[in-house]
Amino acid sequence: MSPILEVKNLYKNYGSTEVLKDINVSIEKGDFLVLVGPSGCGKSTLLNCIAGLEPITGGDMFIDGQNMTNVSPKDRDIAMVFQSYALYPTMTVAKNITFGMKVRGIDQATQDAKLKYVSTQLQIEPLLHRKPGQLSGGQRQRVAMGRALVRDPKLFLFDEPLSNLDAKLRVEMRTEIKALHQRLGASMVYVTHDQIEAMTLATKIVVMKGGIIQQIGTPAEIYNRPANLFVADFMGSPAMNLIPAKTKVNGKGMQIEIARKDADPIVLTDKRNTDLPENVIIGVRPEDIVDAALARTDDTQQADCLIDIVEPAGADTFAVMQLGGKHVTARLHAETTAAAGTAQRLAFDLGKVSYFEPETGLRLN
Amino acid sequence: MTDMSYAPTRTQSPTTKLVLRFILYILLGVFALFYLMPLFVMITTSLKSLDEIRTGDLVSLPREVTFDAWRTAWSGACTGIQCEGMRPYFLNSLLIAIPAVLISTIIGALNGYVVAQWKFKGANIFFALLLFGCFIPFQVVLLPMAIVLGKLGISGTIPGLIFVHVIYGLGFTTLFFRNYYVSIPSELTKAAKVDGAGFFRIFWSIFLPLSLPIIVVSVIWQFTQIWNDFLFGVSFSQAGTQPVTVALNNIVNSTTGVKEYNVDMAAAIIAALPTLLVYVVAGKYFIRGLTAGSVKG
């Protein structure tokens, strides 16, 4: 079976500016693809290209095996949810949802049945006779989703649909979208700048920067094995600690030395990664630096570290210190004894460690 | 809208406040009277008999109200050799203004929709040139326009005048609609495209229903311009197709012997009545429409 969406060598220029460079992505039916990256990375442009709302400069695009490169949006069998929801302001909610069917000349009975089904699914029946102006942000969001769902397309496209909602509602809607995806088994492409949204929703993530794909992978791959420094820094909150270090081969493995101000360097030994250059940047997630007393595995190495700042966050407490000239965050237990200005014994877990080449930023292990 | 920046810095005694208020209202009253004076003189004069005008005071109320002057102005006053009053020319003006307003508003709406929402290569230059057209003085286009009308075979006819007014109005109507539609998020067009709607469908179902305030602006503006136009009316018409402004001029200037001020005044009011009426009926939309684009979020 052919992939539901396949983008091949796509280029997009605005005048002489290259906005997208050699994009290659494909997803299978039922996949939830998230395009994530900082603003201006080209993720929304890519989505518009997939929708056919922006012409592409080079490359090909296939939806369910058919070449859609030069096909107009209405014939691509897609539905799209926009950041501003883009509800038709003069039409009622019901008319907004059925507009697409009306344009396509679908008979009234089918329209009514589909409207009923979708409004039940999204619990918007009481709103059907209101105008968009009389709805709250969350309600508008639901109507926009309804307008897309009612079409039952091959591919759903979402352009930062949650970024106009307040924090609480955003988390609720996120869960709802995920539930919807599981229930419908639909194929979706979703654009966001929020890496948590990307991690929670996706079955496949594309991390972009400057119009270039940095990495494609499952959320776990992206999180545990970032392809370069950009991805390592971008995905995860608090961000991965990226610390300059020197390496040396000794009998047991690779010896990694992290310089410290006013103290001896921390020396860690990595038994698995033994083929590293002398200068590396070592990437350690905050959750891999924990209280020594509470370490989960035996496979850790301990060191006393001077804590600069303690940030309680409820479930965890984050401790910030200086290592290798960088701020380094450790994820400590909520009831930790760590206090600012005092030393704390911490355990470093190198099980999921990443190494990067300092010059190119590429992953080494 | 309330001015949020206003903050009283001094406290005044109630008496001072009252006196200041009093002076303010007196001043406002004086200004209002000043502006209303010409209209007052026109109305009173039109209701007087010629004898009374000759003997009486300019600003006094009529001793005896008579509508003779209005009757003469409407159906008897002479414009040159014909003595049919304003009536046929009033009809001409309606026949010119109504189609010209409608056509220029519809085309302006479509133009504005294209320039704001369907950007094509050179759209900005196209719009700039149209805008430039707004500011070409009427006199400059008289001769070329006369040639074009001649070539089209519609010189001196009412369709010819409609054509001239539509062409000349397009710059402004396009500007109005373009500025209004630019404030409508382009995602709306995109959503409709994905929904399967085409160019005209999107215009008809989504943009036009949003456009009432700006349609009113365009209609008022165009109607006032076209109704009050004199230069095109006098240049591109012939006996029988002259608009009301030209007729008014002829009535006032071609009388021989005694000058019938009362008739002149009545004719002038008749000529001005439709534009006044349009403002009274649709005026509140006019202000709303003019500011809508800038304030709307």
Describe this protein's structure.
The complex is a heterodimer of chains A (365) and B (297). Chain A is 23% helix and 35% strand. Chain A has 365 residues and is of the alpha+beta class. Chain A has two domains: 5-234, Rossmann fold; 241-356, OB fold (Dihydrolipoamide Acetyltransferase, E2P) (Beta Barrel). Chain A has a six-stranded mixed sheet, with helices on both faces. Chain A has a five-stranded antiparallel sheet with strand order 13-12-11-14-21. Chain A is elongated and about 75 Å long. Chain B has 297 residues and is mainly alpha-helical. Chain B folds into two domains: 14-66, no CATH class; 87-295, MetI-like fold. In chain B, 72% of the residues lie in helices and 0% in strands. Chain B has helices at 14-46, 50-55, 68-75, 87-117, 123-134, 138-152, 158-182, 186-194, 199-207, 212-228, 231-235, 244-253, 261-295. The model of chain B is unreliable at 293-297 (pLDDT under 50).
Rg of chain A, please?
Answer: 25 Å
Largest sheet of chain A: 6 strands, mixed
Question: What is the CATH first-level class name of the largest domain in chain B?
Answer: Mainly Alpha
Text of the CATH class of the largest domain in chain A:
Alpha Beta
Strand content of chain B: under 5%
The most extensive contact between chains is: A-B, 24 and 17 residues
**N to C succession of SSEs of chain A:** EEEHEEEHHHEHEHEEHHEEEEEEEEEEE
Radius of gyration of chain B: 25 Å
Mean pLDDT of chain A: 91
- Shape-level CATH architecture of the largest domain in chain B: Orthogonal Bundle
Question: Structural class of the helix and strand makeup of chain A?
Answer: alpha+beta
Number of helices of chain A: 8
